[in-house]
Specification:
The complex is a heterotrimer. Chain A contains 11 helices and 4 strands; from the N terminus they run H-H-H-H-E-E-E-H-H-H-H-E-H-H-H. In chain A, a hairpin with a 2-residue loop joins strand 2 and strand 3. Chain B is mainly alpha-helical. Chain B folds into 3 domains: 77 residues, no CATH class; 73 residues, no CATH class; 235 residues, no CATH class. In chain B, strands 1-2 form a two-stranded antiparallel sheet. In chain B, strands 3-4 form a two-stranded antiparallel ribbon. In chain B, 42% of the residues are buried. By secondary structure, chain C is an alpha/beta fold. In chain C, 40% of the residues lie in helices and 22% in strands. In chain C, strand 4 and strand 5 form a beta hairpin. The longest helix of chain C has 19 residues. The chains are: A mainly alpha, B mainly alpha, C alpha/beta. Chains B and C meet through helix 13, helix 14 and helix 15 of B and helix 3, helix 4, helix 5, helix 6 and helix 7 of C.
Chain lengths: 304, 518, 284
């Protein structure tokens, strides 16, 4: 029971990170109908920006942890958002009305570019960071096993909830959210009713990248080590989460993220750690066979 | 008055160009400030930062001036400087200013080459050569097409390509043995074998993606199944390549059916992600099922194919290839043989695909890509049709995998990562979905160019000894993927050839052909 | 009804629809509809927008599974087929019911001739040893393909598209695309041809040509025609039998003359005042 609870805590933490990235995938899919394959690598760039910003702040003497983290969060979100914007502008906008597979290929190309750019600019070695947020609370003890919720886990879940809450307001309560939903429904009609489609799509990428930067920072703090390749694995799992929840649905992305995080954690804890990804991917295949459009996705009606 | 006007427009143009370039430079600064301007280095106390202001300034300056030049001379002008160069590859007549521009460019090229030869300025030499080659090829092409406007160029090109592929190894080997020219034959053959492997993989995946319109992001899994099937059969049961080949193909096709069955009712991007997941599952299993697959160490000691039972070996245990024909043993013989094996395999893939396109199942594949609902209304069992496409594609992937295993003599999960699937898919899409010729060209351009970068010592001469081209080639590969796709979103060859006709059918414009939703 | 009095569609039906109902969630799109389609008739299904015509159509052609009801295709060439039990492609492959679509669904990137060859897939596929056999020279694909081309040529002639056989279907004009879709459906050698608003978007001349074509199909081929149509002039001119739906219920069923004068139909199409409606309700 104690072991189970501990894994539940770990799983929710991991799921929060996946969920934040999954939203980026699902938003872009909802609005432009493409898999933004480079999104995982935008997350990786976000983690690197966070790492470098943190080191830079330490170097200039800002060592108070809460202040430093807040500043890092803001810097990482802004700079990663610029990356997200650039990727859209360079690789996707020219192909907006083009054939379905063309933007998929440029997305894969951008993913390769980002990975190798970071590898060249920062080196292929893994980048460790001293633990920044330490300590935790022991919830209770059962035998020799104590259930611990660490401060970093609390930080991750709280940040995720706060960011998600803000994001939820943004999508549901502002003109931006309205234009986004309008573009999702019918891009041409939205343009005719005065929505600036290019700007809305750009902002979608900017928002997605901002959330990915939050995820990047949290990942960095949680695992304390990153490299140029984390974007691929984490990105694929986050995308899996988005599909799991029903791609295009933002609550679905969060739910999918949590489920993937839990599957992965529990599988590692109770079975074999080597096959945790197999478990996550197999679950995806099984779920899709029974719910062909994911858990919360709108069923696709075949119009004849 | 007119002068004042044009002065005003010039001023406006200049200021808008400057503004745009400044904006681009600012964005570049934001992008690169942290990730390029500061480098994380290991130090005694953990990570430390090493500032690189000069590099950052250079990159931002390149963006600024590059964008400024583009704005002034290409985008915001009535006469873009790129126009004469684009015209080189059409039949439009040149204007005087085109000729002046081209002449200037030619002169610059000559200057570059001269600088390269006289002052060992390799970079200028290389750029000059490229410029001269570009202009030269363009002019030559114009001259040929103008003189013989009615030649069937595509057929000539294809026939030439096939003839070249058939005779290139023999002729170059014969020349080398006769005259001792010191040609890097081993490298040439290795590279052409690699390219042909990707041509075959591209053609195999083209059946699934290009004809049937099913987006498969896990094609490498079938390549892996073929490779490991043969590796296991060869190392455990001593099976030779020629017996292993059909078994590997059948195994891959079987896996295609087993995995295709549950997932093929999924559509669009759901199918894409599940195939991707499947590819990863296969790789993870290969990596972790150590007792059977050897885990990360893979399987070594896979035998090379024999020439009708004659092994390529320097030792006279039994009859060898060189012993039988009474010639000196040469390691290149085996390589040339491998080259022909993969050439035949690739050509078989192509011929089977071309034949299937003209048979009911091939037409059903293409019809399904065009409109699946209409297919069902015509009594076509789309599940079976999809399955047949998946299995046929998988079979060719398996055959290629079997060849890969025997060529390397060694397989490990590292060769079957997602990036391989992505490269093969890129070859299919960049080539022009459904077009066999386009796929072959794309494979040559992408894989050939990619590998050439790895081995080019010239780049090192330009950028200094610490420059590692292998590091940059992946970056360039990704950039090339983006650039080609934006330049030709439908791929290099986008038109579709009809499979049957009453009179004379001409190719169908790519704009009408759909890409499928599956 | 019996003997000489019985209508042609009741005497000799090809399709019998009995108590067909279709619910989507809480909405009843089709409510207990029964009718027969005669095997030598042109039968029209009409009704105001949202009456459930397309739903009935999709149930017959296998795109929806009906909630309740039986759809029986008379089995002159074997046992009767129960359409509600067949999966989508079997409706055509096994029961030989072909259809066209309201928003034309051709294979736009394939030539006109290729479209018609795809329609003959099943026969050709068997003749070619399921295609993979033909690679090794099995089967008698050559002969079968010649026959298929002849059939395609015949139908191209019927719809006047022979000169355009090698053009991409997507490049044809709208009216040509409609006729090509009918030709493609006929190339599956159907016993029942279902047309979803075949005259939509056609001009008067094209509409006339369509009428002639449909009458030719009824008279010369062994194929019954069943269509949904909005254009009353088409319906009244060529139909032998008209069924009227309103709000998912059948409100009239008979010859064009009978239906034209039916007060329920007039009410449904023109709308009625409350008193008239009450009067109508009171009638037997």
């Amino acid at each position: 029971m104690a072991y189970f609870l501990q894994q539940l805590i770990n799983g929710v933490t991991l799921g929060s990170i996946y969920g934040l990235i999954a939203i980026g995938y699902t938003m872009v899919y909802g609005i432009v109908g493409m898999i933004n394959f480079a999104h995982g690598d935008v997350f990786m760039v976000g983690a690197f920006i966070a790492l470098i910003a943190f080191l830079a702040l330490t170097a200039i003497g800002i060592t108070a942890v809460p202040l430093a983290l807040l500043l890092v969060l803001i810097i990482a979100m802004i700079l990663t958002a610029v990356w997200g914007w650039t990727v859209e502008r360079v690789a996707y906008r020219p192909l907006r009305e083009s054939f379905r597979l063309a933007p998929l290929i440029t997305a894969i190309g951008m993913s390769i570019v980002l990975q190798n750019f970071i590898q060249i600019a920062q080196g292929a070695r893994v980048k460790p960071l001293q633990p920044v947020v330490t300590g935790g609370y022991e919830l209770f003890q059962q035998g020799s096993f104590s259930v611990i919720v660490s401060n970093i886990q609390i930080l991750i879940v709280t940040t995720t909830v706060l960011v998600m809450g803000g994001f939820w307001l943004l999508i549901n309560r502002t003109a931006l959210g309205r234009s986004q939903r309008a573009c999702e429904q019918d891009r041409l009609m939205a343009a005719l009713s005065g929505v600036d489609v290019d700007r809305t799509i750009s902002l979608t990428f900017v928002l997605g990248a901002g959330l990915a930067a939050v995820a990047g920072l949290l990942y960095l703090l949680y695992y304390g080590v990153i490299d140029f390749f984390i974007g691929f694995v984490v990105g694929i799992k986050a995308f899996t989460a988005a599909v799991f929840g029903g791609i295009g649905s933002i609550p679905g992305a969060m739910l999918g993220g949590l489920i993937i995080g839990l599957i992965e954690t529990f599988w590692s804890a109770y079975f074999t750690i080597e096959y945790k990804d197999v478990a996550a991917f197999s679950m995806l295949a099984i779920v899709l066979i029974f719910f062909p459009t994911g858990l919360l996705g709108r069923p696709e009606v075949e119009k004849v | 008055m007119r002068l004042a006007d044009s002065g005003k427009t010039l001023g406006r143009k200049l200021s808008s160009a400057l503004g745009d370039s400044l904006l681009a430079a600012t964005i570049a600064f934001a992008l690169f400030s942290l990730v390029l301007g500061l480098r994380t280095v290991d130090s005694a106390t953990g990570l430390a930062l090493e500032p690189r202001p000069a590099l950052l300034a250079t990159v931002v300056a390149i963006v600024f001036f590059g964008r400024l030049a583009l704005n002034l001379f290409v985008w915001q002008t009535d006469y873009p400087l790129t126009r004469p160069f684009a015209k080189l590859f059409t039949l439009e007549p040149f204007e005087t200013r085109d000729e002046v521009t081209l002449a200037l460019a030619f002169a610059l090229g000559v200057l570059g080459v001269a600088a390269g030869v006289l002052f060992q300025e390799t970079l200028y030499g290389l750029l000059g050569t490229l410029m001269l080659a570009f202009i030269g090829i363009g002019l030559l092409r114009r001259a040929i097409v103008r003189t013989f406007p009615n030649l069937p160029y595509t057929q000539v090109f294809v026939a030439g390509g096939i003839l070249f592929a058939l005779f290139f190894p023999i002729v170059s080997y014969a020349l080398e043995s006769a005259f001792n020219l010191g040609l890097p034959l081993r490298y040439w053959f290795d590279l052409s074998i690699l390219i042909l492997t990707y041509v075959m993989l591209g053609w195999g995946l083209n059946i699934v993606v290009g004809l049937a319109g099913l987006l498969d992001l896990g094609y490498v899994a079938f390549y892996a199944v073929g490779a490991y099937t043969f590796a296991l059969l060869a190392t455990h049961f001593g099976l030779g390549f020629w017996i292993g080949l059909p078994i590997a193909g059948a195994a891959a096709a079987l896996w295609g059916i087993i995995l295709g069955f549950p997932v093929l009712r999924l559509r669009g991007d759901y199918l894409a992600i599940v195939t991707l997941a499947f590819g990863e599952i296969v790789r993870i299993i290969l990596l972790n099922w150590t007792e059977v697959t050897g885990g990360p160490n893979g399987i070594a000691g896979i035998p090379k194919p024999t020439f009708f039972g004659l092994p390529f070996s320097p030792f006279a245990e039994g009859t060898t290839f060189s012993g039988f024909f009474g010639i000196h043993y040469d390691g290149l013989h085996a390589l040339i043989f491998l080259y022909y094996v993969i050439l035949v395999l690739a050509l078989v893939t192509n011929l089977v695909t071309l034949r299937l396109r003209r048979l009911p199942v091939g037409r059903a594949w293409e019809a399904m890509r065009e409109d699946e609902i209409a297919c069902r209304s015509l009594g076509i069992n789309t599940t079976l049709t999809k399955l047949s496409a998946f299995a046929t594609g998988a079979m060719f992937g398996g055959l290629a995998g079997c060849f890969f295993a025997t060529r390397q003599g060694f397989v490990s999960p590292e060769s079957f990562t997602f990036i391989e699937s992505a490269i093969i898919l890129a070859i299919v899409v960049l080539g022009g979905m459904g077009s066999q010729l386009g796929v072959a060209i794309a494979a040559i351009v992408m894989v050939g160019g990619f590998e050439a970068l790895r081995h080019t010592a010239g780049l090192q001469a330009i950028f200094g000894q610490e420059f590692d081209p292998a590091l940059y080639r992946m970056l360039l590969f990704g950039l090339a993927m983006v650039a080609i796709m934006i330049w030709r979103p439908r791929g290099l060859v986008s038109s579709r050839a009809p499979t049957i006709s009453l009179g004379d059918a001409s190719a169908i414009s790519g704009d009408l052909v759909r890409q499928g939703r599956g | 009804m019996s003997g000489a009095d019985a209508k042609s569609w009741d005497r000799d039906p090809i399709l019998t629809v009995e108590h067909l109902s279709m619910h989507f969630g809480g909405i009843t799109a089709v409510d207990d509809v029964s009718f027969a389609v005669g095997c030598k008739d042109i039968t029209a299904l009409i009704g105001p927008n949202g009456a459930g015509k397309t739903t009935v159509f999709n149930c017959i052609t296998g795109f929806y599974k009906p909630t309740e009801g039986m759809l029986t295709l008379d089995g002159k060439d074997g046992p009767p087929r129960f359409l509600e039990r067949l999966t989508d492609y079997e409706i055509n492959a096994d029961a030989r019911v072909a259809r066209t679509f309201q928003n034309i669904r051709l294979f736009p990137g394939m030539t006109v001739l290729e479209n018609l060859m795809v329609a003959q897939h099943n026969g050709l596929s068997r003749a070619s040893g399921f295609s993979f056999g033909a690679i090794f020279g099995l089967g008698r694909f050559g002969i079968a393909e010649k026959e298929a081309i002849d059939l395609a040529r015949y139908w191209l002639g019927q719809v006047g598209l022979l000169p355009r056989a090698d053009e991409a279907a997507g490049s044809l004009a709208y009216g040509d695309q409609r006729r090509l879709e009918i030709a493609r459906a006929m190339c599956t050698r159907p016993r029942l041809l279902c047309l979803d608003e075949p005259a939509a978007g056609l001009n008067a001349k094209e509409s006339d040509a369509l009428n002639t074509l449909l009458q030719a199909i009824r008279d010369k081929e062994d194929t019954a025609v069943f269509l949904i149509e909005h254009d009353m002039s088409v319906v009244m001119r060529i139909s032998d039998h008209v069924i009227v739906l309103d709000y998912g219920k059948k409100i009239a069923d008979g010859t064009p003359g009978e239906v034209r004068n039916d007060p329920h139909v007039i009410a449904a199409y023109l709308g009625v005042s409350d008193e008239d409606a009450a009067a109508l309700e009171a009638r037997p």
